Amino acid sequence: MSYSAHDLPDLIADQVEGSGTRVALAESLTCGTVAGMLGRGHGTSAWLRGGIVAYSTEIKQRVLGVSPGPVVTARCAEEMAAGAAKLFDAEITVSTTGVGGPGSQEGRPAGTVFVGWYRDGQVGSTEYLFAGDPERVLDQTVSVALQRLYEITSDTKRTATAGDSNLHG
């Protein structure tokens, strides 16, 4: 089920609040917008560890441990998410990288986006191709990143309630 980007911060908070789960972000394309949206949720100080805007390739590599090479890739999104988990000591992270437009980058057309995720040592990513101007691409990216974070956190409250001690490392 899909929710509005404006509803998701509170829904995510409902999922992680009281579970002990720590959440962090690594953003390139979205320039901190996902973190700003999460700040609208309730109880954020209890579960949001922080976020990094790693817009330049140098920062992605030096701070988040992204391997040299193209940054508009699934690999980069996954390494950004894993790097943020390490940097912020978080169990769950989401990352964004891509081409907002209007032109192409690294041979990828405008609207190419990768949303990466990390959860308890596992990583993954999804590729999107959004249509529209840069503002529309950014809005769509924020929405899918929040939706992905909601999906990843969807079982934290249930698992924590069940007493799964492995959830929190």
Automatic annotation (TrEMBL):
Parts of the chain that traverse the membrane: none
Family matches, as Gene3D superfamilies: CinA-like
Ranges of residues in domain CinA C-terminal: 8-151
One Pfam family, short name: CinA
SUPFAM superfamilies xref list: CinA-like
Protein name in the entry: CinA family protein
Organism: Gulosibacter molinativorax
